[in-house]
Amino acid sequence: MNNEWHRLPVVSLIFFFLSGIKNTVKHGYQMLPGLVSIWVFVKPVREYVPLILLVLLALFLVMVVLTFLRFTYQVSDSRVSVRRGVFNRSELNLEYERIQQADIQFPWYLRPFNLRVVRLESAGAKGSEVELVGLTLEQALSLQARVSSTDSETANSDHAENSGSSSNKSSDFSLALTNRDVWRIGLMQNPFIVLGLLVAFLNSNDAIRDWIEGKAEAFFGQFPDRTTAILIAIGLTVAVIVVVMLGSILFAVNKYYGYRLSRAGQRYHYEAGLLSTLNRGFSARKLQGVTARQGWVARALGRVNIELAQAGGIGQKKERFTIPSLTSENRARVEADLRLPQVTEWNRFHPVATFSFLFFISGLTAIFWPWWSSILVFIGLYALSIGFWLRRSWHITEQWLVTRRGLIGTTLRYMPLAKMQSIVWRQGPLQRLFNVGTLTIKSASITYHLSDIPEVEAKRIGATFVTQTRTCQLRWM
Predict the structure, then answer these.
(1) Residue 181: which of 317, 321, 329, 81 has the closest Cα?
(2) What burial class does residue 319 get, using C-beta atoms within 10 Å of its C-beta: 0-12 exposed, 13-18 middle, 19+ buried?
(3) What is the pTM of this model?
(4) What is the CA radius of gyration of the chain?
């Protein structure tokens, strides 16, 4: 690679075509109820539908070609520059030191051509994500090594690490997931959320809901009795749940098949994927936070997912470095390698946290329902609140802040004290009465809210953060 401006190969048109379809579905699905209503109620439009679809397809293909033609990139010794845009022309310059991740993807549609996609993600800049499509393996590894060379390792060592070699001689830490670990990931993703979203979407439009009800009545009306219809409905419901769960498992297998994690020096790296392979690297010095999640399904399976967060815009969706489906043994190995603290004594929040919104909800219940129902609601909510309060806690060491929450499942969050960017203390009227408040701590990637802690503890935590941030001489990115 040199300092000249390059165009992507023609085969990258496939990428722009698929990306265009993805963006159309992502931003255009909300128009679906309106389009269905037009189809149902405006009958004269139906005869023009083929022509409309043909025109839209032609415009879509023209935009794909123009997007491809207007995309050029340049790789220099210090940055990657990209020029893109059809109507609004823009130039984006990504300094290697600002690039958080340089992922190498090997999607199924580029496998016949043995070409890769390099995805570059910058720290905190809006829209500063670049995908270079159709690079050879040597070009992709060279670019990833240039980004990695800004860390403590040299570019040559990163090149050897990212080449996907099966040899682990140069690795200081390694971990691999079995096929049994991988298919469990699909169950831990809680596919029932998909069913909820599907039902909510089908009920979002009266025309669609009425059409479904009519079809359902006609279908179940053909059975001789109600018992048979109920059994058929239960069977169909179970079948839909099974299909959704199988789809979730297949999605996880496609994403995490052959997952292999390794670390050489400060550089973590994993490679995974069935149809499309992802090669992702991560520098420990850029670590902004660690999250260990264990939902109720994961708890039943005895598994936990760990995410490593890098610098990124707060509130923006960023790709995380994920270590999924860890057994208790593998979890202990990963936590020891990351030097995470093992907490045995937790600090609880003030009991005033158990009264949040309870009186408000109970009061609303008393307005619309009998008085005894508000008492039952209050007792039930207060029991849940106590359960959450008992499991919600925090702990601080010389290097880490650790928080815990969850009733059935558990979420642990770790933040390096030296990565704090801002810390804010707030008190509401009720909190001021009990001399407690909320301490909000922000890093470059994650926000931590310590609600209902004593003011004395908040001052101690704040002083610890400020001391660690002031004395730490390491780079925060």
Answers:
(1) 329
(2) middle
(3) 0.76
(4) 27
Residue carrying structure tokens 């769960």: 245
Termini Cα distance of the chain: 26
Q: Give the strands of the sheet with 447-454, arranged side by side.
A: 422-426, 436-442, 447-454
Classify the phi-psi angles of 435: left when phi > 0, otherwise alpha if psi is within -120 to 50, otherwise beta.
Answer: left
Q: Which residue, chain included where needed, has tokens 């749940």?
A: 241
Give residue-wise pLDDT tens across range 82-125. Answer: 999 888 888 888 888 778 778 999 999 999 999 999 998 876 54
Say how far apart CA 18 and CA 427 lie, in whole Å: 50
Q: What share of the chain is helix, strand, coil (3-state, %, to 5)?
A: 50, 25, 25
Q: What is the token pair recorded at 37?
A: 């209503």
Contact status, residue 198 vs residue 191, Cβ threshold 8 Å: no
d(CA 102, CA 116): 12
Q: How far apart are CA 67 and CA 322, in angstroms?
A: 32
- Write the CA distances from 167 to 148, 174, 379, 456, integer angstroms: 20, 11, 59, 53
Cα separation of 450 and 393, whole Å?
A: 9
